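Weekly puzzle thread! Below is a chain. First person to post its structure in token form gets bragging rights.
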Amino acid sequence: MQPNRRIIVGISGASGACYAQQLIRSLLRAKIEVHLVISPMGQRLVHDELDHDATDLSWLAGDEDPSGITLYSYQDVGAAIASGSFVTDGMVICPCSSHSLSAVAMGSSTNLLHRAAQVTLKERRRLVLVHREMPLGLIDIRNMAAVTEAGGIVCPANPGFYLGPRHLNDLVDFVVARLLDLMEVQHNLSIRWKEQPPPEGSLGPPEGSLGPPEGSLGET
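Winning reply:
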């Protein structure tokens, strides 16, 4: 348990609502307060991809306690999370659209989502942007550089395949687990690299292996 921790979660209008859903449930499972702000396009995203209302906190929490979620109005720039005096453990925008990436990079604070991100940066707290777009244009690349130089972390939603995923949820869990690691939140999602030697005479990893054979391109 990690009592009295607070993390802001922002949902913007990029594809990947399933990442946001699993992130929120994982934070609640870890007994962390979730302070949630959703853009209008983020609400549409959740509806289109998950067929639910993003403001339905009971559904969003799943089997966890929805009382651990505080939902804020997107336009309320006077809300608690807009102030640096409201102490949090950081913020994750998941998923993060190119629009929100640009706003954070340029210091725009015209709504609560972007204002909270600016506050997180100025207070030197951890800000993670889960960008979900491909291919990347030069503007996005430059905006990512600006956010990184300001102290933020750009964490694209790029799942790994070395664990041999069998279901969509395996890929979602991989990305969410990386986000939890970045926010220093304990979790039980299995994503750890476990290198195993191949059986004698094998040209590849044994069935079920979680790592590459020695001498493979996986070594660095």
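Puzzle host: Confirmed. Bonus trivia for everyone else. The chain has two domains: 6-182, 196-220.
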